[in-house]
Design a protein that fits this description.
InterPro entries: Na/Glc_symporter_sf, Na/solute_symporter, Sodium:Solute_Symporter
Distance between the termini: 64 Å
Low-confidence stretches: 495-510
Keywords: Cell membrane, Ion transport, Membrane, Sodium, Sodium transport, Symport, Transmembrane, Transmembrane helix, Transport
Number of domains: 1
Order of helices and strands: HHHHHHHHHHHHHHHHHHHHH
Transmembrane segments: 59-83, 118-136, 187-210, 230-250, 271-292, 304-328, 363-383, 389-410, 422-440, 446-471
Subcellular location: Cell membrane
Structural class: mainly alpha
Shape: globular
Radius of gyration: 22 Å
GO molecular function, one term: symporter activity
Length: 510
């Protein structure tokens, strides 16, 4: 009877998502509609889409597992809280440039800012490489859901295969509907993941407290953060800095800024995100800390969420817990697949055309859909293989993506820097981060525990700043940047969501 309850609740949720998608289907007029949904959504839609991308299902598994297994060092609430602030500060220029120049992806904006086709290609490849591990993690999270909901009837490999199969079916709507379908379903999925999820977290905390759990019972060593006198005193600093800098580097998150109906919608969404993220993640981390002393949690930290909910409320609470993880995973996988496909079509294939002619709208959509299908099946295959610690896989993705942060943030917030510095900084950062990550997957001992990506970031910034100082801009480049930044300063909310798409951007020939 228990397995009927657990899988029945999950099936009902999945059916509701499919029904919502079927009823809301609208054919995309062009590639801009497919990638940014016509820049038509309000603040709450955007907030749920942002959270459904930024807080994937793996936060219930790898994040809770890391805290439950290692203690306070795994808590990263600061970076989660500051991400909406970064979105708020970016809103003006990113949305206005996106609407004015029909930008569809993050590399689109970087190519516009630095007037470089090479930057478009490099940023797109880094973006796809950084997103792919999260795609695999999402698939693995689905496997964890099906394994837990089966109440021991399915082994983990079979559960992953089943979860991957279900998610592959779900991608039919993502490939067909593009960004519009993702944002619409994210509203429902976000309410389930972070609304219902928060209620479940509070219920489990109350149950743990009633059973005598408290922070006073947690071993002091688990409450301490690495600092002076420890082998890796800067590890916690690095684990906090990476997610903060990466917050809007993720291409699937960045494109959320384009989908809003205006600057006010984007800023309003950041105001919604902050309190929701605070309540949800604070509760999740607190729950994991309270569970530190439980033998069943210590035996399998990555399964702590399912272990606790089953113990607290039986199959019904477990069913809701699994559905919450499924909802969060689905939104993140959808966004990852769509963003990766759009970048491959728009920023790699189109940019590499030898004849220099733009791809047709239809060709862009078809190329993106083919790429999305290939990425889905590739991630599904890898997800079924034995993998190292889920936390290590997630950290590797951060090490890659943070290398985009230097040219991205300098490029949006200042006029300092040039295309040569942007290209060299990203490539040098990726090379160093990849090498160090292979040697030291978590912290680099000779760098006092800084992660590989953080060490590489130091070189990244140095290269970018040095190039900016040693290679001054030409008069023509200064004039181009003046005009570009003036667009954001003058346009404000004057650019309407129904502005005709297709206005060409400044040249990108480097």
């Amino acid at each position: 009877m228990g397995i009927v309850i657990t899988f029945g609740v999950l099936a009902a949720f999945f059916a509701a998502v499919v029904l919502i998608l079927q009823r809301s289907y609208v054919a995309d007029r062009n590639f801009s509609d497919f990638t940014v949904a016509g820049r038509s959504f309000g603040g709450f839609y955007q907030a749920m889409a942002f959270l459904n991308t930024y807080l994937p299902g793996t936060v219930f598994i790898s994040s809770v597992g890391f805290v439950a297994g290692s203690g306070a060092v795994g808590i990263g609430i600061l970076s989660i809280m500051l991400a909406p602030l970064v979105m708020y500060l970016m809103a003006d220029r990113v949305w206005v440039w996106g609407a004015a120049y029909d930008l569809r992806t993050q590399p689109d904006l970087m190519a516009l800012r630095f007037d470089s086709r090479a930057i478009r290609i490099i940023a797109a490849l880094i973006g796809v490489a950084g997103l792919f591990p999260w795609m695999v993690l999402g698939m693995q999270s689905l496997g964890a859901v099906f394994h837990a909901l089966s109440l021991g009837h399915l082994d983990f490999t079979t559960s992953v295969v089943l979860g991957v199969a279900v998610m592959t079916v779900r991608q039919a709507w993502t490939i067909r509907m593009g960004m519009r379908g993702i944002v619409i379903s994210d509203l429902f999925q976000g309410i389930v993941a972070y609304g219902v999820g928060s209620v479940l977290v509070i219920a489990v905390i109350a149950w743990l407290h009633a059973g005598g759990a408290s922070l006073a019972a947690v071993p002091p060593g688990r409450l301490a953060l690495p600092g002076p006198g420890t082998p890796m005193p800067l590890l916690f600093f690095s684990l906090t800095l990476l997610p903060l800098l990466c917050s809007l580097c993720w291409p699937d998150l960045f494109v959320r800024l384009y989908t809003g109906s205006g600057i006010r919608s984007v800023k309003r969404s950041s105001a919604y995100c902050a309190p929701i993220a605070l309540v949800f993640m604070s509760g999740l981390y607190f729950m994991a800390m309270l569970a530190l002393g439980r033998p069943d949690v210590a035996a399998a930290p990555d399964e702590a969420w399912f272990t606790l909910t089953l113990a607290a409320g039986g199959p019904w609470l477990l069913a809701l817990a699994g559905t919450v993880v499924f909802a969060a995973s689905m939104g993140n996988i959808d966004a990852t697949v769509q963003s990766s496909g759009a970048q491959i079509a728009n920023d790699v294939l189109a940019a590499l055309r030898r004849d220099g002619r733009p791809m047709s709208q239809r060709a862009l959509i078809v190329a993106s859909q083919i790429a999305m299908a290939a990425i889905t099946f590739g991630a599904a295959f890898i997800a079924c293989l034995p993998l190292p610690s889920l936390f290590t896989v997630a950290l590797f993705a951060f090490q890659l993506m943070v290398q985009i942060s230097v040219p991205l943030y300098f490029g949006i917030f200042t006029r300092f820097g040039n295309r040569e510095g942007a290209i060299a900084s990203m490539l040098s950062g990726i090379a160093v981060a990849g090498t160090l990550q292979v040697l030291w997957p978590v912290g680099v001992p000779w760098a006092y525990g800084l992660t590989a990506g953080t060490v590489a970031l130091v070189l990244n910034v140095t290269v970018y700043v040095a190039a900016g100082l040693l290679l001054p801009k030409t008069a023509g480049e200064r004039a181009r940047l003046d005009a570009l930044f003036a667009t954001a300063a003058d346009a404000g909310n004057a650019i309407r969501r129904d502005r005709a798409p297709g206005r060409p951007s400044p040249s990108a020939t480097a």
